[in-house]
Amino acid sequence: MKPNLDLWRRLIAVGPGLSLAALIGLLAYGLATLLRTPVADPLVIAIVAGVIVRTAIGRQTRCHEGFAAAPLVCIPAGIMFYAVKNLDFVVYARMQPTSIVLAALVVLVYFATILLLGRLLGQKDRISYLTAAGSGICGASAIAIASPAVDADSDDISVSLLAVTIAALVALFTLLPFVATTVGMTDQTYGLLSGSVLQMTGFVKAAVASLPFLSRELSDKELASLALSIKAARYLGLLVAIPLFASLMRKRLYVPWVLWLFLGAGLLGTAVHAADQQFYVATLIPTIKPVYGISWSIAMAAIGLNADVRQLLSNNGAKALIMAFSGCAAAIATFFVGSMILG
């Protein structure tokens, strides 16, 4: 009877916090779905909502265990399903090698710029690693995947995610349109630029959805496919980022379990895609996409509920913003240099 009693006590301890995180995460995912705009990232909405609720209710000790438990369960589940959808080697095999090389150059420059600035500014290592992963690869998703590898806490994740999101919003609505009109880009070049440097996949979709100020060479469908294909190549950066940042964190070579989960799930998804493309595209992907979206929304809500709002407004928050904006600027410059070199 004692093991059952211990389990019951554990469930009672995590229940209130886990329930609140689940409620906020589900509402955030539902709101993002209702808004029907690629800019509305449910993970960002969830963590911001969590921070707001935490500020309103204060630190509730009876909820703390649930806030801590939610990411431990929901982040690995999200990683697994995310990899099945996005780490698709069938897609990579069909890509132009120059697209993969260009994406790799941009990711490496993102990493190098942010890590160097983090060292110069005296930023916390974990925040530097998460900001680099989020900026260079896929925003909130990359931060969620990299966070277990570097043992990041709620404040590290919150600071990094908000800095990357703010930089991405400025790039989407101000920086990239300014650059495009200044140099007279075509829609094709702008699609490549967006896919190469924008942090979130949804932001890439938004960038190419309406381009009235650029000369058109491609249809809307072709342009979106082009931009998202080079964005997809950046997902491969997680295979480097996860062991790299985990090893830098521990100052020794270290391959965390999250890498094997991510890679294994990706290989499984690739095998299913290769065996039955119709099932993979029509049934599997539409089913698993909401699963990892909801899982990560719940995790991010719990992280926001467990974060200290003072950290978001601290020197670390300001430094993270400088790092995220500088990394984006360096990535844009790298795109132009890389495009000239690769032709």
What can you tell me about this protein's structure?
By secondary structure, the chain is mainly alpha-helical. The relative contact order is 0.20. It has 16 helices and no strands. It has one domain (2-342). The chain is globular, with a radius of gyration of 20 Å.
Topology:
Layout: H1 2-35, H2 42-57, H3 61-86, H4 89-94, H5 97-121, H6 125-138, H7 140-146, H8 154-183, H9 187-197, H10 201-209, H11 220-233, H12 238-250, H13 257-275, H14 277-306, H15 309-312, H16 315-342
Helix pairs in contact: 1-2, 1-3, 1-14, 2-14, 3-13, 3-14, 5-6, 5-11, 5-16, 6-7, 6-8, 6-12, 6-16, 8-10, 8-14, 8-16, 9-10, 9-11, 10-11, 12-13, 13-14
* Rg estimate, integer Å: 20 Å
For the sheet with most strands, the description reads:
none
As a percent range, the share of helical residues equals: over 70%
- The secondary-structure element order is HHHHHHHHHHHHHHHH
Mean pLDDT: 89
- Annotation, overall tally of beta strands: 0
Cα-to-Cα separation, first versus last residue: 70 Å
The low-pLDDT segments are none
Q: How many H/I helical runs?
A: 16
Gross geometry = globular
